[in-house]
Amino acid sequence: xxxxxxxxxxxxxxxxxxxxxxxxxxxxxxxxxxxxxxxxxxxxxxxxxxxxxxxxxxxxxxxxxxxxxxxxxxxxxxxxxxxxxxxxxxxxxxxxxxxx
Amino acid sequence: xxxxxxxxxxxxxxxxxxxxxxxxxxxxxxxxxxxxxxxxxxxxxxxxxxxxxxxxxxxxxxxxxxxxxxxxxxxxxxxxxxxxxxxxxxxxxxxxxxxxxxxxxxxxxxxxxxxxxxxxxxxxxxxxxxxxxxxxxxxxxxxxxxxxxxxxxxxxxxxxxxxxxxxxx
Lengths: 100, 169
Prior knowledge:
Chain A is mostly helical. Chain A has one domain (4-87): Helix Hairpins, CATH 1.10.287.3510. Chain A has helices at 4-24, 28-52, 57-87. Chain A is elongated and about 50 Å long. The model of chain A has no long low-confidence stretch (mean pLDDT 90). Chain B folds into 3 domains: 1-81, Four Helix Bundle (Hemerythrin (Met), subunit A) (Up-down Bundle), CATH 1.20.120; 83-112; 124-169. Chain B contains 7 helices and no strands. Chain B has helices at residues 2-22, 26-46, 50-75, 84-110, 123-129, 131-140, 144-164. Classes of the chains: A mainly alpha, B mainly alpha. Chains A and B meet through helix 1, helix 2 and helix 3 of A and helix 1, helix 2, helix 3, helix 4 and helix 6 of B.
């Protein structure tokens, strides 16, 4: 029997992997993909809660999260393309003019 | 049956997420992320959220990942992009801290904090009407204002993407 905890642990594993990916990778596009993975993990826990608590709010919030993710992907990738056009790289160690 | 399906799909999604973290070639990264998203869509169907599963396939695995692949192909990245020195001292603490985060989440799951009130939308009730119809009803009655704000958000994002794509920034 699959319980709510199974889904929440799976969601936690996927979220943790997204966090580790953001910390250890240096390619801006791959960091962006790891952020998408974290959003997906949170969506999974939303839907799991919605199913096990007999509620519909979780699925509606997933709908809104997906919209925000789509907007974020469009703007973020446009920013990455603009940065690449100016600096010829997407390695975030070389894109540090706002660091200090 | 359902339990076997859950374990198989969960294993595939975790393995492809691991490949997503450690694979060097960005195109393969995108394909592994698509695999993870398809697995999550299967889990949505197991959780009786058919509409969300379809939207996950269309919007995430379809539109957003095609956008990612398009940008990867457009930028024509070489694989040896990552600098080795800065990475070496960050990798081990990063993995250690990630595992610590996972342990903290599991401790929270073990506590009794995660008990909510049960709602009125039981599985039998939702299936008798239809998942999509219930979501549509709620979206156009109780959640009308957030729905409209979402349309404004998408509009602003489209304008922002066009602005950033201008030749002289």
